[in-house]
């Protein structure tokens, strides 16, 4: 059975999480510290995995809803959007 590995950005608001496949991040070991420096305490970055047949929201319900991105630019933009405060 195929196991997929992802970098997950857990946000601390009720906006859910964002993932990108590690297959799309050849440099994830250097990318994670870069993200941590930019987002500081607004997001936590984790490596997760799941079986290919199981949707991420079911495999990791504590991080749902999970938004899947396929590029570093889209991933970073989605994290930025989920960590921004809503202006009233």
SSE layout and pairing:
Blueprint: E1 3-11, E2 17-21, H1 28-39, E3 43-51, H2 56-59, E4 66-69, H3 72-83
Parallel strand pairs: 2-4
Antiparallel strand pairs: 1-2, 1-3
Low-pLDDT ranges: none
The count of β-strands is 4
Main sheet summary: 4 strands, mixed
Mean pLDDT: 90
The rounded Rg comes to 13 Å
Number of helices: 3
Structural class: alpha+beta
- Walk across the major sheet and give the strand order: 3-1-2-4
Q: Could you give the distance between the termini?
A: 47 Å
Give a brief outline of the structure:
By secondary structure, this protein is an alpha+beta fold.
Task: Please explain how this structure is put together.
The chain is α+β, with helices and mostly antiparallel strands and 88 residues long. Helices cover 32% and strands 31% of the residues. Strands 3-1-2-4 form a four-stranded mixed sheet. It starts with a strand and ends in a 5-residue tail after the last helix. 20% of the residues are buried. The mean pLDDT is 90.
What attributes does this structure have?
alpha+beta; 3 helices; 88 residues; globular; 4 strands
